[in-house]
Amino acid sequence: MSVRLSRRSALFVSGGVAALAARPSWGQAANDDVSLAEAVDAYVAKCRAAWPDQPALGVAVVREGQTVLARGYGVKAQDRPGAADEHTLFAIASNTKNVTAAALAILVDEGKVKWDAPVKTYLPDFRLSAPYIGEHVTVRDAISHRAGFGLGAGDLLFWPNSDRTRAEVVAQAAFVPIEDGFRARYHYCNLMFVVAGAVIEAVSGRSWEDFIQTRILDRVGMSETVPLARLADPAKSALPHGRVGPPLRYQGDMTRIAQSIVEVWNWDSAAAAGGICTTPTDWAKWMAVRLNEGVLPDGSRLFSEDAAREMWKPNIIVGSSAGPTAELPNRSIASTYAMGFQVQDYRGERLISHGGGSPGGISATVLIPGRKTGFCIFSNAEESFLLRALRSGIADIVMGKVDVDWIADSKRLEAEGTEKSLAAAAEIDAKQRAGAAPSMPLDAYVGTWRDPWYGDIVISRRGEGLWLDFTHTPALKGPLEPYDGETFRTRFPDRREEDAFVTFAIQTAKPATATLKGVSPDIDFSYDYQDLRLTRV
């Protein structure tokens, strides 16, 4: 389990814990658009001062259908000139999911799709490893994270950048293990959103990106937005940044990790789950449409009022608690997932939200329907505690209930997490130094190893050691080192990626099967090494 805030936590607005603080100077309720813009702008400045390594931010605020604030802060790349502004492109990753849900809503309005029809209605060849679920999982299930897959299951089909096609990802879903009961519990699942994208394509006769472009982006007037990262002009983009060690990922100095967004985030094969890149200016337009339940600025509708309400209807419980207390004024009684959005109570009001995380970028969208107000935060780095401070602090400013110092609290948690992560990294290295030697010669582990859903992983000799190759993932290739007995560890030269432990099982005097798990305690959940079951071919 991670000891730090991770991409997983960046996906949702925190309903978490913070110490009560003296009311900051920007804590008065902002009752007009100018005051709101000034209060948010001042708060962003305070957050940037607390996290000086953050290269760029994009922030937009809308209220009553109008853009109150749309601004870029900082620089698009830390090692070159170029200021970020309101027209700078950011990868928004899983914030794409609510656009995919809206695309399905359009098809529902046209009578071409039904929320509660089985996916097989539209994809007759669709199968899952649990046959009953494959037969009965519906469109609603697909975009509600309740099919039964574990967290991030199947993500290695497209994360990191993979050579798999969209059709191959959907086909391989038939072999990804399902670890829970159907509709039993919430487990965040990108894979089923890829399936939802395939439904859009099958029903409309268009590619997902063409449907999104012509039926949504063009109609909303989002002329700066692109549905695929490979279409994002690097000169107009906030380039990805992160910490790549030493000793582990998410530690060390901040550095630019790519020359373009697509270099580390080519999700063509999983676009429906996270493909969109957009700007603060454009996403403000989208938030206004969502807050107005599908009504466009010209008075026409993108989708019906019924569809708008259906997309915000809770379908599965994410978490629950006893509710707010004097010490925890923002704690939710219930956090739920609807379709492409999380829905929760927050300080006595309904809050609609989602987050997104990609290599070198995280983002958040927060809508407060009762106030007809929403805001977004885009980042070109992975500073999740900064995102926590921004999204919770801006929500409180909008509500005029600023009684928590989110900056101080997030810095405290960040420091605690860093201390634990560094200690964990030292322990990992110490165990390797003290580890037992493998029981067999290195040549015994050489061969092709196959997982039913990922495909082949090849282990070969290179020099005096072993070399491991995830055959569908160009970045996951590197030395495989002895760690402790039958457990080895990767040492990928591309330090943007996460290493894995590989543990072999010996049968009839030779390695016959292997399992994997991530090395780092802070590993991103989309490196779902733990779902791999390798058998020697």
From TrEMBL:
Molecular function, one GO term: hydrolase activity
Lineage: Bacteria, Pseudomonadati, Pseudomonadota, Alphaproteobacteria, Caulobacterales
Highest taxon in the source lineage: Bacteria
Domain Beta-lactamase-related: 54-384
Protein name (Swiss-Prot/TrEMBL): Serine hydrolase
PROSITE patterns: TAT (PS51318)
Keyword annotations from UniProtKB, A to Z: Hydrolase
PANTHER family named among the record's database cross-references: BETA-LACTAMASE-RELATED DOMAIN-CONTAINING PROTEIN, D-ALANYL-D-ALANINE-CARBOXYPEPTIDASE/ENDOPEPTIDASE AMPH
RNA-binding recorded as keyword: no
Domain Peptidase S12 Pab87-related C-terminal: residue ranges: 432-536
Family annotation (Pfam families): Beta-lactamase, DUF3471
Species for this entry: Brevundimonas albigilva
